[in-house]
Amino acid sequence: MFRESTNPAVPSLTDRESEILGLIAGGATNREIVGSLYLSPHTVKEHTSTLYRKLGARNRADAVERAQRLVCLAEEMSASDSPETHGVTRHLRGTGAVTASEGTEEEEL
Known about the structure:
With 109 residues, the protein is mostly helical. It has a single domain, classed as Arc Repressor Mutant, subunit A (Orthogonal Bundle), CATH 1.10.10.10. The chain has a two-stranded antiparallel sheet with strand order 1-2. A hairpin with a 2-residue loop joins strand 1 and strand 2. Helix 1 packs across helix 3, helix 2 crosses helix 3 and helix 3 crosses helix 4. It is elongated. The protein starts with 14 loop residues before the first helix and ends with a strand. 28% of the residues are buried.
């Protein structure tokens, strides 16, 4: 499981929150998330609200954008070889919400 971040700029997300963030990034509605993860509508709303709060986001698009920015921040911080920042980068990339550039082409991770 993902460790709590000691850096307040980089929020820690649970595996479920990461999964939901990835689905949101893919354009899934709450109803589609409910169907694909077999959760109640209330549970999905709670997870998305928690995501918004942790990321400081106002809506779905803002949450995805902020997650992408956090990966960039975590990558910069990982130059210090901190195991925590490597985990943050890998964790947020695992959401499917984040892309990384390789050369001139963008590749979805």
